[in-house]
Amino acid sequence: MLLFYKAFILFRIAQFVIVALAPEPFDTSSLILVAEYMEGKVPHYPTFMITILNKLMAWDSVYFLKLAISGISYEHEWVFGPLWWRFLSLITSIMPNPDIYDVLLVSIVINNLCLIASAYMINQLARTILKNQFVKSFVGPKFPEYASLLIIIQPSGIFSLIGYSESSSQLLCYTALLLRQKSLGTTRIRNKHLYEISGFLFALAYGLRSNCLLYGIVYIYDMIKFPYYRSKLTALFTGLLLFFSLIFSIYVPYQEYCPDRGEWCHSLTKSLTSYAQNHYWGIGFLKYYTSNNIPNFLFAMPQIFVLFLSLCVFSNWSVIRGEWLVGVIYLIIQIFWMHIQVINRVSTFLPLHILYVAYLLSINRSLGKAISAWWTFWVLLQTGLFACFLPPA
After folding, report:
1. Does residue 13 lie in a domain region?
2. Tell me, what's the pLDDT at 39?
3. What are phi and psi of 189, to 5 degrees?
4. Number of domains, the chain
5. Strand, helix or coil for residue 45
6. Residue 91: inside a domain, yes or no?
7. Is the pLDDT of residue 393 over 80?
8. Beta-sheet strands, E only, within 96-178
């Protein structure tokens, strides 16, 4: 792992140098929030550091920082990972008189630690997969090592380093996938406790990013796959942990606003999150298919291509069939329902694209090197764009 740590540190330094050298942000609206929360306070960080931190308060990170400081004010804020900003609030509450810069710095530290831990988890996940005789017959021995290194240059880039919940949800998902893999036998669930912990971790991950709910698919798959009644019950119980987290996320805001709020209170799902995503962000079937979003489709195409290729290759890897099914459903939803450009950061909850490129590198395919080079270029470019408050978000 020494190579990983060296590469990790050097790449992060490069990113922060880019942020420091980037021009002042195109949109300075986030500085209004800074002024509001810094009123009567004197920043206790050097000027050069404040300049860098100001550039890292852009897009949705502003929401997470605001929520960590003052909680929910408006209903659309319920869509932002409730566990993530509450966790940030809890950590910063032990600090003496914390300000918005403290919250941002805490999120940066936590996210970098989560990335390091995620690299370890995907390394172990790759080693577990490599024990499968079918996979072992044609995958190179450096497969796990490459998987770890690719976490550094994954296309989520700067979004995995700052106020977003991508890194924390990635860590929980990768840990859950590893525990589930270790708990499975050929025809039954061998370790019930590890298996159930995986479901609990996915439920927590759902509280950080709603797309993690898709991992309920792996438990449905296990229910169908395993012939033994006891394994089917274990898969059902574990999957219900995710289902109950969904019900809880619907129930809490419903109790807060309904029935007086109307509209979404009377919808079929009773879900504020679904309503807010549709009403405030325009998420829905083909809603993003407009001419002004062509640049966003161009931003997304490389990652769509990589994820699609990974699904093609892994379609006959039975050892990760459950993860493959999640990837298929996610890609369909991402392309036809969601804001297309967010695939670069949201897809971090899946390990498939990382494992695919690691597989290519392990067998010395030039495509693996080309994708790695593109990711490196993209992340550095994206870092500069983000620091200037420019798309993609």
Report:
1. no
2. 82
3. -85, 115
4. 1
5. coil
6. yes
7. no
8. none
By residue range, what is the domain housing residue 239?
A: 28-41+49-387
What's the distance, Cα to Cα, between the start and end of the chain in Å?
32
The beta-carbon contacts of 39-47 under 8 Å, at least 24 apart in sequence, are: 41/97, 41/99, 43/99, 43/101, 45/101
| Confidence (pLDDT) at 384 | 96
Mean per-residue pLDDT of the chain:
95
pLDDT of 30 reads 83
Between residues 133 and 225, which one has the greater pLDDT?
225
Q: Which residues contact 310 (CB under 8 A, 6 or more apart)?
A: 327, 352, 353, 355, 356
- Residues with Cβ within 8 Å of 268's Cβ and at least 6 positions away in sequence, in order, are none
Q: How far is CA 290 from CA 95, 227, 282, 296, 300, in A?
A: 46, 47, 12, 10, 15
Structural domain contains residue 246: yes
C-alpha distances (whole Å) from 60 to each of 64, 81, 219, 390, 392 are 7, 11, 31, 13, 12
- pLDDT tens for 282-312 read 999 999 999 999 999 999 999 999 999 999 9
DSSP secondary structure letters along 68-94? HHH---SGGGGGS-HHHHHHHHHHHHT
Q: Can you tell me whether residue 332 is helix, strand or coil?
A: helix
Give how far Cα 214 sits from Cα of 165, 238, 321, 342, 352, Å.
17, 14, 14, 16, 14
Residue 14 lies in a domain: no
**Of the candidates 301, 356, 352, 302, the residue with the CA atom closest to the CA atom of residue 329:** 352
326 vs 61, residue with greater confidence: 326
Cross-strand bridge partners of residue 184: 189
pLDDT tens-digit series, residues 2-47: 899 999 999 999 999 999 999 988 777 888 888 888 887 888 899 9
Beta strands in 130-196 (DSSP E): none
- pLDDT, tens digit (0-9, with 9 covering 90-100), for 152-205: 999 999 999 999 999 999 999 999 999 999 999 999 999 999 999 999 999 999
Q: 């509280």: which residue's tokens?
A: 207
Peptide bond before residue 43 is cis, with ω within 30 degrees of 0: no
